[in-house]
Structures are given as structure tokens and as C-alpha cells.
Amino acid sequence: MRFVKLSTFVLLVLAGSLAAAQAVAYEKASILEISPKPASSAVHKATDAPPPPMQSTYDLTVQIGDMVYVARYQHASEYLPSNWVVGQSVDGRVGKHKHRIYLKDVQGKENALVIVTRHPATSK
């Protein structure tokens, strides 16, 4: 009997956390600027180690709500989702701990971008 109560409790906790994980609220994120970053090597000295793989890096300036974020997007190729265009709105959200923003690509997949800077949006 005790095992049944414990297992029921565990199932209720898991179901509650699953429901909370699915209840992610997205806002309209406006893309203000996309800046490609020049490729740079992380190797600073002579070494026998192979060089790190080159990645394409972009800084995206995005407004979500009343905050403007500059976030870094990296990809192994020069790929940038086709719906990420300056002046467009995409579904986005700020992460739980406010270190990342998440933007959806054309297929609805969430992409995590590390926040580099943030500041309040100025009214024009």
C-alpha cells in the first residue's frame, strides 16, 4: 500500500513538471539587425592539437517586449534560418535564467542563442 502511494505521488509530480515544461509562452520577437562576425581561430600558440572546426557566427539584435537583446548564433555552415530577416517578427522567448533567448526557425524548431548584451528599448 505504501509503495502504491509513493508511486502515485511520483507520477503526479512528473505529470506536473511535464505540463509546466510544455507551457512555454512565446512572444513576438522583432529582428532589428543581423551582423556576421569574422571567423577567428581559438588557437593562440603553436600546438599539435588540430584546429577547432570553423563556425559561422552572427550577432542578432532582437527586441522582445520592452528589452533589446544582442544574442550570438553559431552554426557549422553559413546557414541562417530563412525566416530570420531584419524587420521580420518571429516567435521568441527569454530563457528561465535570462542567459539565453530562444527563437523559432522556419520549421518551428527552437534555437538557443546566448545573450551578449541587453538594454531597455527606447521609444521613438
For the sheet with most strands, the description reads: 6 strands, antiparallel, barrel
Computed Rg: 20 Å
- Strand pairing plus helix content: what structural class? alpha+beta
Number of helical runs?
1
Number of strands: 6
How far is the first residue's CA from the last residue's CA? 65 Å
What's the order of the H and E elements?
HEEEEEE
What is the overall shape?
A: globular
Helix content: 10-25%
Query: Proportion of β residues?
Result: 35-45%
Major beta sheet, strand line-up? 1-2-3-6-5-4
Low-confidence spans: none
Mean pLDDT: 83
How would you describe this structure in keywords?
globular, 124 residues, 1 helix, 6 strands, 17% helix, six-stranded antiparallel beta barrel, single chain, alpha+beta
Structure description:
- The chain is of the alpha+beta class.
- The protein has a domain at 25-37 and 52-124.
- Helices cover 17% and strands 41% of the residues.
- The chain has one helix and six strands.
- The protein has a six-stranded antiparallel β-barrel with strand order 1-2-3-6-5-4.
- Strand 2 (56-64) and strand 3 form a beta hairpin.
- The mean pLDDT is 83.
